Amino acid sequence: MIDFRSDTVTKATPEMLQAMTSAAVGDDVFEDDPTVNALEEKAAKLFGMEAALFCPSGTMTNQIAIKVHTQPGQEVICHELSHIYNYEGGGIAFNSGCSVRLLRGDQGRFTSEMVEEAINPDDPHFPISSLVSIENTCNKGGGVTWDLSEIASISATARDAGLKMHLDGARLFNALVATGHSPKDYGLNFDTISICLSKGLGCPIGSLLLGDKTMMKQARRVRKVFGGGMRQAGYVAAAGIFALEIHIERLAEDHSKAKMLADGLVDCSWIERVLEPETNIVVAELKEGKHQNDFLEVLSRKNILAVNFGKGKVRFVTHLDISSNQIDETLNVFRSI
Ligand SMILES: Cc1ncc(COP(=O)(O)O)c(C=O)c1O
Fold first, then answer.
1. Which residue's alpha carbon is at the smallest distance from atom 15 of ligand 1?
2. Which homologous superfamily does the CATH classification assign to the domain defined by 250-336?
3. What percent of the chain has pLDDT over 90?
4. DSSP state, 185?
């Protein structure tokens, strides 16, 4: 099968497995796993932030951040397409007891003017606006990246009004490689950043939450409450260290493969329009009257997997385990169906 369902389907490479099996480990709940500590330090330093916390998933790092930044009854400002709102099981309400103010900008992005309008006045009728969350790249928006000056402007607006800034950077390294921005540019603009190791970076598991020491101390407590304290987690942290050293620059290959897929899809008889990919996500819209599940069924009979992305839409994601030959095979299939 040629698996374009997600960049989470990758298997650890032999070199990554080698790094994992030779890791020095300890009990991370006692904070004495040297490999976890090294990963946390490495990631924090990369972004110019004080500290980091290794967690099992990106859902957990996002949800811990929301919990740390809010009190029950307060409000989180985010995009209507955001993962924290759509795909984390209602966690904002369930874990933090907060309401959500949804913004409707272009492909998952919004502006500082929209944030300014969404911040509630200091009036007991309204929930207290306490957090702005940005997603970069935006998954549901087709993997688009943000303009750094817009982020800086949102950050200034939010912080002036006393709100905190969180970044869901599940695919932030894709954005950094595509735009040439540096991790430290992001560290400056956010109070917390979540990065995933298990997506484009090819690790089997793991995400990191970055922030200052006080917030990470609180985050460690919330991680325990959420059941995310891990013991000899150094085996998986070693994969993270390996990925931060070896798997970032190669994301450019995934991006060029995504462009090839998008170009090929334009010639496919099922497809009306393809969103221009900026990173490793390709979203295609089907011709009038065609159903996404029928298209996915036809593709799967040709050994190609993608996902249903809402009415009349499908999503393909390129990653470490997609070879150039598989792209060629896929393009042939697009032409033939
Ligand atoms: C933008 C974004 N944020 C967060 C997550 C959650 O990551 P996890 O699956 O590790 O919980 C995902 C997962 O695909 C994602 O796409």
1. 170
2. Aspartate Aminotransferase, domain 1 (3.90.1150.10)
3. 100
4. H
